[in-house]
Write a structure and sequence with these properties.
This protein has helices spanning 2-20, 24-27, 30-53, 63-76, 81-97, and strands at residues 54-55, 58-59. By secondary structure, the protein is mainly alpha-helical. A two-stranded antiparallel ribbon has the order 1-2. It starts with a helix and ends with a helix.
Length: 101
């Protein structure tokens, strides 16, 4: 196990070092900016999907799905972020109080 931990640490350090040693002219390329933006959105979407639809090693549909749907509609309607968070939490809490999820 310690070998894996040390290897992960070395790999993290090597990746960070490689990022610092890339010439700045490469980073100013518009394609790099677009790709970085797409990677950020893809990673955040994957995190939301895993946290919403997974419980342990199985897929579930519970109150989190309804809360995500409410949040998506409110974001689409351009509601303030705090309203989105409170409404989604309220929907999830209400459904859980009713016994779903």
């Amino acid at each position: 196990m310690w070998v894996a931990i040390v290897a992960a640490g070395v790999l993290s350090w090597a990746t960070k070092h490689a990022g610092h040693s890339v010439p700045e002219s490469w980073l100013e390329n518009p394609r790099v900016h677009r790709i970085a933006a797409f990677v950020t959105v893809a990673l955040l979407s994957a995190l939301v999907a895993v946290q919403t639809f997974a419980s342990g090693r199985s897929l579930v549909v519970d109150a989190r799905v309804a809360a995500l749907a409410v949040a998506a509609v409110l974001l689409w309607r351009r509601a303030p972020f705090i309203v989105v968070v409170v409404a989604a939490a309220g929907v999830a809490a209400g459904l859980r109080a009713l016994g779903w999820g």
